[in-house]
Amino acid sequence: MFKDQMQQDVIMVLKFPSNSPVTHVAANTLPHLTIPAVVTVTCSRLFAVNRWHNTVGLRGAPGYSLDQAHHLPIEMDPLIANNSGVNKRQITDLVDQSIQINAHCFVVTADNRYILICGFWDKSFRVYSTETGKLTQIVFGHWDVVTCLARSESYIGGDCYIVSGSRDATLLLWYWSGRHHIIGDNPNSSDYPAPRAVLTGHDHEVVCVSVCAELGLVISGAKEGPCLVHTITGDLLRALEGPENCLFPRLISVSSEGHCIIYYERGRFSNFSINGKLLAQMEINDSTRAILLSSDGQNLVTGGDNGVVEVWQACDFKQLYIYPGCDAGIRAMDLSHDQRTLITGMASGSIVAFNIDFNRWHYEHQNRY
After folding, report:
1. Measured between alpha carbons, how far is 273 from 279 in angstroms, rounded to an integer?
2. Which residues form the Neurobeachin beta-propeller domain (predicted)?
3. Quick check: 212 and 256 in contact, CB under 8 A?
4. CB atoms within 10 A of CB 197
């Protein structure tokens, strides 16, 4: 029975030649992109642009034969697969030794063409071309090492907000120009772009941040203390005081519906409304490393050191589903654009693609079918 379930749940496992944990996964899979792909980055800062093939419409259709289509949605980056172009995929610039490489150290632009990386000893974060692996921009602005990065959803044309958080306890809000592929609006002054806003109020190193352009909000967490809600113009709106024992925020996910899920150290979760009201909380027995919300904000997906993907109802943390366990810890996750495939980055250096269908857990759907 379990095996049968496994076949329905797991689409594929892709094992990279390097055993370095996959610490960031970005699934920018929209068909109109030049390269729809799942971009992965490992702990050793080796990235891969793994081409995405749209198979969902065909999978399970009557008369569907495997020869007609790519039966697997993700194809390994050929430069990584045959070890031929690793120099185009390895970021060699030195990261500050005290930085723990995790999913927050990286941002991939919506067109898969650039990776932003932080943690460098010179207090910068940097932009690299995914095509060549070359450094295209160095951005300064913080007084100490940059510890985390996040990007908002993209506007038409690829413009978006980038937020950098630092050991200097501040965050800077930047503008990514989709036209010029740089931070800042002006290609002539790309050496010294100015941040759009400075976000202050934390007492400690910033460790996690989420930015939502639709709501115009940035939500950030420091090593300890409450999470803060700022507007994208830099005004501090409020502090999200967690319940007792929720002192050390580590992961933040915010939906455009105005729900903010925060994961704190030692398995504790809180759900806040954007107005600062605590709506729900729970505690689980896993050291969670990755969380994400479905695009409608209704469902929360979590994964961590236990290697188990779990799906929850976001509003009240009711558990909806547990996937079959993987043989390694989960370090990163992302969803394909159609919300039908979940891709996890594993501590063993592989990625796993799962079938996911949020509708099947929706109460109306359950009552109807």
Report:
1. 7
2. 86-359
3. yes
4. 17
